[in-house]
Design a protein that fits this description.
This protein folds into four domains: 125 residues, Beta Polymerase, domain 2 (2-Layer Sandwich); 84 residues, Hydrophobic Seed Protein (Orthogonal Bundle), CATH 1.10.110.30; 163 residues; 48 residues, no CATH class. β4 and β5 form a beta hairpin. Helix content is 58%, strand content 7%. The chain has a six-stranded mixed β-sheet with strand order 3-4-5-2-1-6. A two-stranded parallel sheet has the order 7-8. The chain has 22 helices and eight strands. With 439 residues, the protein is α/β, with parallel strands linked by helices.
């Protein structure tokens, strides 16, 4: 894809009207970050986007059809988009003044951009703030105009590892209530981007101090409880960043490096900020629904929390120094795909109040290893084979009707198959006969 050719084509389509490269594109170019999405502001944005799309057979998506604020996206490929937005106000300076942060309020005419004349129009000192690694909100009502910008400020702080300047931090705290009016589907991506950072603990702590976190995850915890929850979050994040601190090298091929780290960290926040004396499943479900998480993501978070809570409550004593494989089987069967993330959560919570190097801590770590070993080397391989007996077998061979006992027999046989205590269909039949006689 020849991006330079397309940029020249945009100039040709615009004829005598000036097109500006704006916002994140200018910010990322100054920071020498790869340019994937290009943002343009121009008076006739819809016409330019439409013609560029039609000439090159690119998909065209209408992101915002609000009159005088229209935004159109031209999708070049999986990695690159061109976003065209109608110029806000009568000049580029007026347009920039309606944006969120100084580092996003810069522009260069497309003609100069293509010629390498990179002298940004920068009315609010964005270049200086980039140099000083500072997040600063624009003056006026920019946070009131779109309260999501409160969360975006923290998102850019996390993404770029920038500090939020004090006056802006105070403004974010004052305007936090506006987030209650923002649709959940807009909040969730910003929150997940924050949590995706390898060092998100710093930003989450600042969100807690500002009160923003309490808007997103409403809770009534006192400062000491919040401090402990944040410590647990940091310990969990540390394990996710460095799995070798929890698992030795032999586990590297066993799926200990997780892709859904943002969801795991969100599970950690919900578990420790919403939990009182028990896991607040209903509150968690309601919050995930409000944030419009998918059913699969919600299920992942809920199961991860439930398994982690059970692991922490039991200290995994059944899987440590003297493993009980029946209990291990039961735990793994309940957790299944959420086993690994739940162990990270449990380990973070355990380490936040106990030492992993003492005898109890060593037992907990050994238990996580035993559980993962069992799951990867016994449970999953066994599940690749069909069960020794089915419900049809119980009905046809033993004249049993579906009932709680019926289900218990099948579960017992399956457990024996996975544990290796029942190795053949004949063993299973004998066990069923024995169980029927004992009922």
């Amino acid at each position: 894809m020849n991006t330079s050719h397309l940029l020249d084509e945009i100039i040709s389509i615009a004829e005598n009207k000036t097109v500006y490269v704006v916002g994140g594109t200018i910010r990322d170019k100054i920071l020498n970050r790869p340019l994937a999405d290009y943002d343009f502001a121009c008076a006739n944005a819809p016409e330019i986007a439409t013609q560029l799309s039609q000439k090159n057979n690119f998909p065209l998506v209408k992101l915002d059809e609000t009159p005088k604020r229209e935004t159109y996206r031209v999708i070049l490929n999986d990695q690159t988009n061109f976003d065209f937005t109608v110029l806000q106000g009568k000049s580029i300076e007026e347009d920039l003044g309606r944006r969120d942060l100084t580092i996003n309020a810069m522009a260069v005419s497309l003609e100069n951009f293509t010629k390498g004349n990179f002298l940004p129009i920068d009315p609010f000192g964005g270049q200086e703030d980039l140099k000083n690694k500072t997040i600063r909100a624009l003056p006026g009502n920019v946070l009131k105009d779109d309260p999501l910008r409160v969360l975006r400020a923290f998102r850019f702080a996390a993404q770029l590892d920038f500090k939020i300047e004090p006056a802006t931090f105070q403004r974010l705290s004052r305007e936090k209530e506006g987030l209650n009016q923002v649709a959940g589907e807009r909040i969730a991506p910003e929150l997940c981007t924050i949590l995706s950072s390898n060092d998100s603990g710093k930003t989450v702590a600042r969100m807690s101090v500002s009160g923003v976190l309490n808007i997103l995850v409403p809770n009534s915890k006192d400062n000491a409880s919040k401090s402990f929850a944040l410590k647990t979050y940091n310990e969990t994040e540390s394990f996710l960043n460095r799995p070798e601190d929890l698992y030795p090298d032999r586990f590297k091929k066993d799926g200990i490096f997780l892709e859904e780290t943002a969801l795991v960290k969100l599970a950690c926040l919900l578990w420790h900020f919403l939990k009182e004396d028990a896991v607040e499943t209903k509150k968690t479900e309601e919050l995930l629904k409000k944030l419009r998480f998918s059913n699969s993501d919600s299920r992942f978070i809920l199961k991860t929390i439930q398994a982690a809570d059970e692991a922490l409550t039991s200290n995994l004593d059944f899987a440590g120094w003297s493993p009980d494989f029946s209990q291990i089987y039961g735990f793994v069967k309940q957790a299944e795909e959420e086993l690994v993330p739940s162990l990270y959560l449990a380990a973070g919570a355990f380490k936040s109040h106990l030492n992993l190097d003492d005898i109890e801590g060593e037992g907990f770590v050994r238990a996580t290893h035993n559980l993962l070993d069992f799951y990867k080397r016994r449970y999953l391989p066994a599940k690749e084979h069909p069960p020794l007996l089915t419900g049809d077998d119980l009905q046809n061979e033993f004249n049993l009707s579906p009932s709680p006992i019926f289900k218990s027999i099948l579960e017992y046989i399956e457990e024996g198959r996975v544990l290796g205590t029942i190795k053949s269909k004949e063993d299973a039949r004998k066990m069923v006969k024995s169980m029927i006689e004992s009922f």
